[in-house]
Amino acid sequence: MSAAPVNTVDIAPLMPTYAPNDVTFVRGEGSWLYDTDGKEYLDFLSGLAVTSLGHSHPAVTAAVCEAASTLLHTSNLFRTVPGPRVAAKLDELLGGGGKVFFTNSGAESNECALKLARKWAGHGRHVVVSAFGSFHGRTLATLHATGQPEKHEAFQPLPEGFRHVAWSDVDALESALDPTVAAVLLEPVQGEGGVHPATAEYFAAVRRICDERNLLFMVDEVQTGLGRTGAWFAHQALGVRPDVVTMAKALGNGVPIGACWARADVADSFRPGDHGTTYGGQPFAASAALAVLETMQAEDVPARARRAGSRLAEGLEALDGVVAVRGMGLLLGAELAAGLDSRVVAAAALVAGLIVNPVTPTALRLAPSLLVTDDEIDRALAILAGVLAAAAEPNVSGRDQ
Ligand SMILES: *Cc1c(COP(=O)(O)O)cnc(C)c1O
């Protein structure tokens, strides 16, 4: 097994915000990616839960090509056709009674939610409470909402109005509330934080507290939304109805588009001029999203994610070197046995042709296409079994750090 591919693209012109692998991908189809050397990889990360229908899905390709030769963009000063259709479909999937603002990313969807909470609550009531271990984005405000203080330090001072509480701790939440709080913002599964699902009891308690105190319950479904967890939205499986739901990643299957949905009376706190975006909801991205949602409905991706998720979780649990599996549907975290370094395992898996993510130093994150086949799951498990067996061998583990 040779580690470094022959044809690696020079990334020197890029700001050094990432330290990518040597692999350079040039093509993708379904669950498979191909590098510059023609080597194939099973993609069990999906561009961070983005390509939920797999790479180059024909319905999305057709929609994107059609939009590209028809109308890409006009600005939001004019009406266009696909955007409102996507909004209506999302509202239907969310149970109705809401309105949508389109964005280009997850962070922007959360920015919309944060501004909406402030506009809805009024001056003096602007604080948003989120959880330690959360991830809500990289803009200054969403970075402050992100409950990872070590990520804040270099960028202080951050926008005021954020408070963090222990994850899944109802008492901690109650004691953080005062009359300045407008909203609670939580992920149904902390994805970047290590794939930690909320319990239905926790979400029910948060819903009750928000109702008692007239706070908005805002749910960040940027990673969990659109079938990934086995429900259209993970909060539905947790049995609550939030006031605000943000999403992005899977909505365009790789075309950048996000959305912030809010209960209609909350959404109507915004008046023309309060918030905006040049690109958000443009025909190009909205056409992709429409094709994504239609395909997801036709394929019943929540049911597929539940079925494939059980098969993958059971297979992972049976692997030597995996001590626990957590998550929902096809958003899974595999906790590795003591002594195994997730970065070493993920790097070895990549060499062996499987893409997984070392989400914490001791856990792998898996998020394959929601259309993944049983055969692809079994092949991924076989690759991982081999990689874990080799990593557990003291002499060939490569664990030299
Ligand atoms: C990825 C992610 C974001 C940020 O999305 P970007 O598109 O990178 O801005 C926000 N919240 C959650 C839960 C995410 O997983």
Descriptors for this entry?
single chain; 401 residues; alpha/beta; Aspartate Aminotransferase, domain 1; Aspartate Aminotransferase, domain 2; 2 domains; seven-stranded mixed sheet; globular; disordered C terminus; binds pyridoxal-5'-phosphate
Structural features, described:
This protein has 401 residues and is α/β, with parallel strands linked by helices. Mean pLDDT is 96; it is low at 397-401. It has 14 helices and 17 strands. It folds into two domains: 8-57 and 300-400, Aspartate Aminotransferase, domain 1 (Alpha-Beta Complex), CATH 3.90.1150.10; 59-299, 3-Layer(aba) Sandwich (Aspartate Aminotransferase, domain 2), CATH 3.40.640.10. It has helices spanning 46-49, 58-68, 82-93, 106-121, 140-145, 149-152, 170-176, 200-213, 234-237, 264-267, 283-299, 301-317, 342-351, 374-392; strands at 25-29, 32-35, 40-43, 98-103, 127-131, 162-165, 181-186, 189-190, 196-197, 216-220, 244-247, 258-263, 322-328, 331-336, 354-355, 357-360, 363-366. The chain has a seven-stranded mixed sheet, with helices on both faces. Strands 1-2-3-15 form a four-stranded mixed sheet. The protein has a four-stranded antiparallel sheet with strand order 13-14-17-16, covered by helices on one side. Bound molecules: pyridoxal-5'-phosphate. Pyridoxal-5'-phosphate binds at residues 105-107, 110, 135-137, 187, 191-192, 220, 222-223, 248-249.
